[in-house]
Specification:
homodimer, 222 residues, alpha/beta, Rossmann fold, seven-stranded parallel β-sheet, 7 strands, 40% helix
Chain lengths: 222, 222
């Protein structure tokens, strides 16, 4: 008989993840750090938006940023170059998500003492990241105008687990078949408590509201 | 001691998938059917492009189309309404990919006798679908201009396994920071044999070349 390796099944993976998420939340509480997990499809504008948001916030609160990618370090470098904040690139070796255990290990390496706001730029994917609690206080997701207003119908879990939904690249609204009212209606049907905010890093639309929203949450966490 | 369930590990999942892919290819050979697997990020324009392509091809070859989604049936309905071809919606229950076993089961239900060209619209995702052979003869992937020219650096496996890379929504080139030469260079570095074609379903750019490319492959398969 050959060797049989055993791995635990799905339910246990999630139970283990919930333990790791609780550990992450304890590490955050010990440091007074507010943690947001930013998710979207590839190319929705996460890095551009976060760079613009961090530039607005960095003189008001102490920020650290973590980026997840399969093997490149482009995004963490872009954020660090543009904003000067402490930035960490996590390579997840080809997985389609990051879970709380990976976040926990990253936080063991990445000192968050004195950090008021920790931002995680998740891997570009509308399926897998929605399934894993990373230990974040709030999930933020981006739906870009070029992707279309039907995405809540097609990737419902992502919209269900997101506290804040940013409609991005609103400056391109005229070029795509995107109905903002339909998008909002579909998001709120899945998640009646979602805060929905149209933004454009290019024109600055919505950026002041987003800044206030995050700043307010960081201050309430103190 | 509680009950321990055992599932086989990753390598065996891929080995099983390769068996199923061989079964799918035999079913295709028995029917003289050419099969393409179409992949991309969410919102890259798969359904719009396929509708335009099928409309051009449907009087020349007999086409059937399968759409994968988590739980909605929007895409199969859109293709069927716009083109009149036989269309099947596969619900994959929340997974981030479709594998050859799912394709095989779909083909057991979905009669492909007399079908010259079978098209699979995969789930919108740049990570998981690249890992699973679906039994297709050719992988086609879409990279839309709004997503940015850095995607080959960030999702390398998808570009490595794709025979044809379509740069879509080229009509929006002026509005986004997308350098087609950089995109091509990055794709060819991963996959020197990739056929790269800029297309726009809106303006028709590249659609004649794409039609010829697919028609030629279907005829060579006979």
């Amino acid at each position: 008989m050959g060797e049989v390796r055993v791995i635990e099944v799905h339910e246990d993976v999630f139970a283990q993840n919930n333990h790791a998420a609780a550990d992450v939340r304890q590490m955050l509480a010990d440091n007074g750090t507010f943690f947001i997990n930013v998710m979207s499809a590839p190319g929705s504008g996460k890095t551009t938006l976060l760079t613009a948001l961090i530039s607005r916030l960095k003189d008001k609160v102490n920020i650290a940023e973590m980026d997840v990618d399969i093997e490149s370090s482009l995004d963490a470098q872009r954020v660090a170059d543009a904003t000067g904040v402490k930035s960490l690139q996590i390579h997840n070796g080809g997985l389609c998500h990051i879970d709380a255990d990976m976040t926990k290990r990253a936080l063991q390496d990445f000192d968050i003492e004195g950090v008021d706001l920790l931002i995680l730029e998740n891997i570009g994917n509308l399926v897998c990241p929605a399934e894993f609690d990373t230990g974040a206080h709030k999930n933020v997701m981006l739906l870009s105008v070029p992707e279309g207003d039907d995405k809540p119908l097609k990737y419902p879990l992502m919209f269900t687990v997101s506290d804040i939904v940013l409609i991005t690249k609103t400056d391109t609204m005229g070029f795509f078949n995107f109905d903002p009212d339909k998008a909002k209606e579909r998001i709120l049907k899945l998640n009646p408590n979602a805060v929905i905010l149209p933004v454009s890093a290019k024109t600055g639309e919505g950026m002041e509201e987003l800044e206030s929203l995050i700043l307010d949450a960081v201050q309430k966490n103190k």
